[in-house]
Design goal:
Helix content: 55-70%
Strand order of the largest sheet: 1-2
Largest sheet: 2 strands, parallel
Number of helices: 9
Distance between the termini: 29 Å
Order of helices and strands: EHHEHHHHHHH
Strand content: under 5%
Length: 242
C-alpha cells in the first residue's frame, strides 16, 4: 500500500479487508517485485525439494509460474471484491485494472512515450482486459474451494514444460503433480464424499490452460516497449525476455 501516491494511514490498513485503488504503472512495478519474492517463498514453503534446487532453477520456475498465478489469483479475488464490476482484475494485492483506469495508468512516462497510442492499444487489445469477464465467469461458475484453489496453483507451479529440459526438474514436477492429484482425489472422495467428481475435476484442471497467459503477456510488453511506455530496464520487461 505504501507504493500508492496517497498511502492510507497504518491504522486503516486491514490485511483481511484491504482498500483497493486503481492500478498505476509505478505501483505495479513495485507490486510485481514483491509478488515474485513472495512466490519464491511460497515454493520453498510448499515444496521441500524446491529448496534444494540451484538459485537460477528456482528463479526459472517462479518466473514461469508468475504469469499464470497473477492472472488466476487476480480473477479469483476480483470475483470476491468486485462482484458487480465484471471487467475489473486485481493484478496486485490492493490495486485493480479495468477499462476506465487505463487513461490514468501511466503517471510518469519517458518524454518520447506514445501515451495516446498506449491508451488506444489497451482499449482495443484482446490480450488482457477483454478476456477478464470470461475468465472470471469460469471461476464463478465452479466456485473453487480453498483446497481446490491451492491444488490449482500447486499444479500451475510445476507447469515447467516451456523451460529448457532438465531431467531432474521434469522428475520433480512429475512427483509433485502426482502428489497433488492424489490429494485431490482423497479430498473429493473422503472429505466431500463425492463419487462422480470427474466433471468438476476436469473443469478445475481447465484453469491451467485458461490462465496460460505468458505468451500473451510477452506480446503485451513488447507492444508497450514499441510505444516507448517501457524501457529496456523495466523489471517485468526484462523478466519476460529471460
Amino acid at each position: 500500500m505504501h507504493a500508492r501516491g496517497d498511502p492510507p494511514h497504518p491504522l486503516l490498513m486491514d490485511v483481511d479487508a484491504p482498500s483497493t485503488f486503481p492500478a498505476a504503472c509505478k505501483t505495479m512495478h513495485i507490486a510485481n517485485k514483491i509478488l515474485l519474492a513472495s512466490l519464491l517463498e511460497f515454493g520453498k514453503a510448499a515444496f521441500p525439494d524446491f529448496t534444494k534446487l540451484q538459485a537460477h532453477e528456482q528463479w526459472s520456475i517462479v518466473s514461469e509460474f508468475f504469469y499464470r498465478f497473477r492472472a488466476f489469483e487476480g480473477c479469483c479475488r476480483a470475483n470476491e471484491c468486485f462482484p458487480d464490476h465484471p471487467t475489473r482484475f486485481l493484478p496486485s494485492f490492493t490495486s485493480f485494472l479495468s477499462p476506465e483506469v487505463y487513461a490514468h495508468f501511466y503517471d510518469k512516462l519517458p518524454q518520447n512515450a506514445d501515451l495516446e497510442g498506449a491508451v488506444s492499444y489497451f482499449k482495443n487489445s484482446t490480450n488482457s482486459i477483454k478476456e477478464v469477464p470470461m475468465a472470471r465467469e469460469c471461476i464463478a461458475r465452479l466456485k473453487p474451494a480453498h483446497d481446490e484453489f491451492f491444488a490449482v496453483i500447486g499444479l500451475m507451479f510445476w507447469c515447467i514444460e516451456a523451460l529448457p529440459h532438465r531431467q531432474h526438474l521434469s522428475d520433480l514436477a512429475e512427483k509433485y503433480r502426482k502428489q497433488i492429484m492424489t490429494e485431490l482425489h482423497v479430498y473429493y472422495k473422503e472429505k466431500l464424499k463425492m463419487d462422480d467428481y470427474a466433471p468438476r475435476l476436469g473443469e478445475l484442471l481447465m484453469f491451467i490452460q485458461v490462465f496460460d497467459v505468458k505468451e500473451r503477456f510477452q506480446e503485451h510488453f513488447e507492444n508497450l516497449r514499441l510505444l516507448n511506455i517501457l524501457d529496456d530496464d523495466n523489471f517485468i520487461y526484462r523478466l519476460q525476455k529471460e
